[in-house]
Amino acid sequence: MPRRKSRRVQALMVLMIDCLSMFMRLNSVGKRVSHRSRLAAVAVGAALVLAGLPLVTARASSGAPAHWTAPTTADMTSQSTGSATPNTLTPEEQRDGWKLLFDGKMTTGWRGAYLDTFPERGWTVENGELIVLESGGAESTHGGDIVTVDEYSNFELVMDFNLTPGANSGIKYFVTEEQGGTGASAIGLEYQLLDDERHEDAKRGRPGTRMLASLYDLIPAENRPINPPGEWNTARIVSRDRHVEHWLNGTKVLEYERGSADYRKLVAESKYANWERFGESDKGRILLQDHGNRVTFRNIKIRVD
């Protein structure tokens, strides 16, 4: 390659690295990053890979590793970039053991909590999206929660969700249906879905424990890169043995150990204090909550160890 052309390529690579580094610094401190900026960052990262240059993990000013790293195939296809067909798996994801929990057309694999079949009302499938319908904000009084037919123990769960203004919902896991009862929301560990700015629940409980991506009523989420209502966000829940992580839009926002002394102390101080061994079941179902507000889901996928 001529020296002049080589220098131009080197300068371009330096510029791209600077852009990617800036994106990762913003993300690491929890600042909102626009959808267009995410697209640009992914494009830059792809260009670097094609050029044969390594991607490195950014570090926050404190010296701690930033949460954002080069996205995996699952990360890239689960993000709402429009670069992949929703509710499909790439060949790489299939090889890695991912399975769809929603194909964009049918509700196969789901049923109503405490029911044998899928709810006759309150939920619908439209345009490749699974939607819980608006019914006035009451908890589990219209269609009710839905749960997976299968139970899971060690798993990685990813899904896109889109809140309407003021919406409340949740993704629960390790749901057994042995706690709670017909007509009530099924009991389980909950990845909170909430419009923090408009819904009253954000101000209740211990500070931050009822806000978006928190472990509901137990642990607040930190450094959350949130897209506002009307835009897609991506939730990720990782459960391996007793270790659990919540992720939001590619950033790990909390982690904990089920059944640990710290965990049990938090439970004892929460609304779950009277539930024996709350959240400590060896396996359980995945649940999407009907809390009376319209919330949309897509790209629901899981892989198990």
Structure description:
- This protein has two domains: 3-70; 91-304, Exo-inulinase, domain 1 (Jelly Rolls), CATH 2.60.120.560.
- It contains five helices and 13 strands.
- A hairpin with a 2-residue loop joins strand 9 and strand 10 (243-248).
- It starts with a helix and ends with a strand.
- By secondary structure, it is of the alpha+beta class.
- The protein is globular, with a radius of gyration of 20 Å.
- Helix 1 (3-28) crosses helix 2.
- The longest helix is centred in the N-terminal third of the chain and has 26 residues, at 3-28.
- Strands 1, 3, 4, 6, 9, 10, 11 and 13 form an eight-stranded antiparallel beta sheet that branches. Strands 2-5-12-7-8 form a five-stranded antiparallel beta sheet, with no helix packed on it.
- The chain has helices at residues 3-28, 35-50, 73-78, 91-95, 261-268; strands spanning 99-100, 110-112, 123-126, 129-132, 146-148, 155-163, 168-175, 189-194, 232-240, 243-248, 251-257, 285-288, 295-304.
Class computed from helices, strands and strand pairing? alpha+beta
List the total number of helices. 5
| Overall structural domain count | 2
Output mean pLDDT.
79
Question: Layout of helices and strands, plus pairs?
Answer:
Layout: H1 3-28, H2 35-50, H3 73-78, H4 91-95, E1 99-100, E2 110-112, E3 123-126, E4 129-132, E5 146-148, E6 155-163, E7 168-175, E8 189-194, E9 232-240, E10 243-248, E11 251-257, H5 261-268, E12 285-288, E13 295-304
Antiparallel strand pairs: 1-13, 2-5, 3-4, 4-13, 5-12, 6-9, 6-13, 7-8, 7-12, 9-10, 10-11
Helix pairs in contact: 1-2
